[in-house]
Design a protein that fits this description.
Layout (H helix, E strand, L loop, with lengths): L22 H8 L4 E5 L5 E2 L14 E5 L3 E10 L10 E8 L4 E6 L12 E12 L2 E10 L1
Antiparallel strand pairs: 1-2, 1-3, 4-5, 4-7, 5-6, 7-8
Bound molecules: zinc ion.
Zinc ion binds next to loops.
C-alpha cells in the first residue's frame, strides 16, 4: 500500500519585496529605473544598495539614479544556469559612466559577439525567478 504523504507548501524565498530595507530599489525596477544608495557622509555610491556605508559605516544614505549606459568590463559564457534560463547564457560586468559596476545578463549578444569595452545599454525585463511573483530586473543590451 502506498504511503500517504502530506504536501507542504514552500514559503516564498528571499527577497520579500515588501519587507526588505531596500524596497525603494525593487519599486524603482518595477518602474524601469535603476537606483542605488549614496552615503551622505562620505559620498560613496555603492551597488547593490546598502543601508550602511561600507566605507565610513554611516547610515545616512540617500537614493540616487544610476546611468543606463556603460561599457562591457568583463563577460563569460555560463552553462550551468538558474532555473528559468536556457543555457548557455552570457553574463557580464558592466561599468557605468560613474564607475559603478553591475553584474547581469546580456540578452542580445552571444559570447562570441562581445568584446571588452563594448557600449552597453541597461534595459529592463520581466523575470520569473521567484515562482510566487514576477518582477522586473535590469539586463544588458549591446548597442
Ligand atoms: Zn560613507
Amino acid at each position: 500500500m502506498e504511503e500517504e504523504r502530506e504536501i507542504m507548501e514552500v514559503p516564498p524565498r528571499y527577497p520579500n519585496f515588501e519587507q526588505t530595507a531596500i524596497k525603494e530599489f525593487w519599486d524603482a525596477l518595477e518602474n524601469e529605473k535603476l537606483i542605488t544608495t549614496r552615503c551622505e557622509s562620505c559620498g560613496k555610491i555603492e551597488f547593490p544598495p546598502k543601508i550602511i556605508c561600507t566605507s565610513c559605516y554611516s547610515d545616512d544614505m540617500e537614493w540616487v539614479d544610476l546611468p543606463l549606459q556603460g561599457k562591457l568590463y568583463s563577460f563569460a559564457e555560463m552553462f550551468a544556469v538558474p532555473s528559468g534560463f536556457n543555457p548557455p547564457i552570457t553574463v557580464a560586468v558592466v561599468e557605468l559612466e560613474n564607475g559603478v559596476r553591475l553584474f547581469g545578463h546580456v540578452i542580445n549578444a552571444s559570447y562570441d559577439e562581445l568584446k571588452v569595452g563594448d557600449d552597453i545599454e541597461i534595459t529592463f525585463e520581466e523575470m520569473n525567478w521567484f515562482d510566487y511573483k514576477k518582477h522586473k530586473y535590469f539586463v544588458f543590451k549591446k548597442k
